[in-house]
Design a protein that fits this description.
The chain is built from eight helices and ten strands. It is α/β, with parallel strands linked by helices. The chain has two domains: about 140 residues, HUPs (Rossmann fold), CATH 3.40.50.620; about 120 residues, 3-Layer(aba) Sandwich (Rossmann fold), CATH 3.40.50. It has a ten-stranded mixed sheet, with helices on both faces. Helix 1 links the parallel strand 1 and strand 2. It is elongated. About 5% of the residues have low confidence. Belongs to the universal stress protein A family. It holds the Pfam family Usp. This is Universal stress protein.
């Protein structure tokens, strides 16, 4: 199944962290000929209910001004001046508002900035980004605060050979093709044995037969700890983007449930694209 991106949702709070996601959204929109909805969510101060309407009007005026400035800034860049970009202001809880906007706007992809890894499990990606990744019906690209857009020369796809990997790898190849990226398919195994080698070779054969993407290689890393294995690999390979499947995998639950302060350093620097794999 190919990944067709015609509309991108770009949540923003107008912070420096949110701005990190902007060039990724703009480039993906340009190369896919897609439109963008930039949205901001106003979390209402329920403790001041009698003043709520006045506060809402004031904040809305400020947000509209910020949107106007941001759109003017984008329009000054000739490569993006023709993009179709609209804006949306929602009220309520941030993560729920983003998920609802993605549904209403029929977004194919959510691109958002995140606080990145700090070694503390509750703020690994930021609570909003984590909730959106877990509940979104469409792929989510999270861009940490310490990353920057320099093209997508090399994409690393994480696999454990489970259901959905082939579809997700095809979707990764769809994006890679837009940027002429190299793809490395990475599997972390606890030990090297006949079963591991057989599964690795079998997956390579299946991908080679079913996917038509030439610039792709495969790596098998032996490491008892999955996250440490990914970190070890990324120390030796320059990567622009990590992609992985959300469902039917232990990957994401491991990232959210444990504290790997040393190993998780790369997650504060590299964008992560979470695919549905369905």
């Amino acid at each position: 199944m190919s990944l067709q991106i015609s509309h991108i949702l770009l949540p923003t709070d107008f912070s420096e962290i949110s701005d990190k996601a902007l060039p990724f959204a703009l480039e993906l929109a340009k190369r896919n000929k897609a439109s963008i909805t930039m949205m901001h969510t106003i979390e209402e101060p329920y403790d001041f209910a009698p003043m709520l309407e006045d506060i809402r009007k004031q904040v809305n005026r400020k947000v509209k001004t910020l949107f106007k400035d941001k759109l003017e800034e984008i329009a000054k860049r000739s490569e993006y001046s023709e993009l179709d970009i609209d804006t949306s202001i929602q009220n309520g809880r941030v993560s729920l508002a983003i998920l609802e906007e993605a549904k209403l706007s029929k977004a194919d992809l959510i691109v958002m900035g995140t606080t990145g890894a700090t070694g503390l499990q509750k703020v690994l990606f930021g609570s909003n980004a984590s909730e959106i990744i877990l509940q979104s019906k469409v792929p989510v690209l999270v861009v940490p605060k310490n990353s920057g857009y320099n093209g997508l020369e090399h994409i690393t796809f994480l696999t454990d050979y489970n259901d959905g990997d082939l579809n997700a790898l095809q979707e990764t190849a769809d994006i890679a093709g837009l940027f002429n990226s190299k793809i490395t398919v990475l599997h972390i195994a606890k030990e090297r044995n006949l079963k591991t080698e057989t599964m690795h070779r079998g997956f390579i054969d299946m991908v080679t037969k079913q996917l038509n993407y030439k610039d792709m290689d495969f790596e098998l890393v032996i490491q008892n700890n999955f996250i440490a294995g990914v970190a070890d690999f990324l120390e030796t390979k320059t990567t622009s983007l990590i992609t992985m499947v959300r469902y039917k995998k232990p990957f994401f639950s491991k990232l959210l449930s444990r504290n790997h302060s040393k190993e998780l350093g790369f997650y504060s620097k590299l964008p992560l694209l979470v695919l549905m794999g369905e």
